[in-house]
Design a protein that fits this description.
The protein is mostly helical and 131 residues long. It has helices at residues 3-18, 20-29, 35-65, 68-79, 88-99, 103-122. The model has no long low-confidence stretch (mean pLDDT 89).
Length: 131
């Protein structure tokens, strides 16, 4: 598997997280009088179900490892509806204050969680293996 493909899995995971709340809203509100919209909604709902399952697995992994604060970064930055409209830099700052760590740590933990989530979403192809 090429380096570009591995990078794409990470980027896709990143995009799914960045648009998580919008995609959930779409699933709840799409009016599908047109077949193509109905099909798109079904695909989106299936993918979001997969993302939700992957997030639960990641949360469980972090709980088992005693690293729940790392998962909390994902919740604060991507899953909290109350922070959806807050600018990114402000989200990072708020997360660092809530977790009592610096902003670089928040970014590092987020990156680790995105990588781990990629594995739960895409299996072995989500790993950064050098084959």
């Amino acid at each position: 598997m090429g380096k570009e493909r591995k990078k794409r899995f990470y980027q896709n995971t990143n995009l799914l997280l960045e648009h998580y709340l919008d995609l959930k809203t779409y699933c709840d509100n799409a009016v599908y009088a047109v077949q193509s919209i109905k099909s798109n909604r079904e695909v989106t709902m299936l993918m979001m179900s997969h993302v939700d399952t992957a997030l639960l697995l990641l949360k469980g992994k972090c709980a088992a490892e005693g690293t729940t604060e790392k998962y909390k970064v994902i919740e604060l930055l991507h899953l909290d509806k109350n922070q959806q409209e807050i600018p990114w830099a402000e989200k990072i700052l708020r997360a660092s204050k809530q977790l009592c760590c610096d902003e670089m740590t928040v970014m590092k933990w987020r990156s680790e969680m995105v990588h781990d989530l990629s594995v739960f979403l895409f299996g072995v192809e989500g790993l950064k293996l050098q084959l």
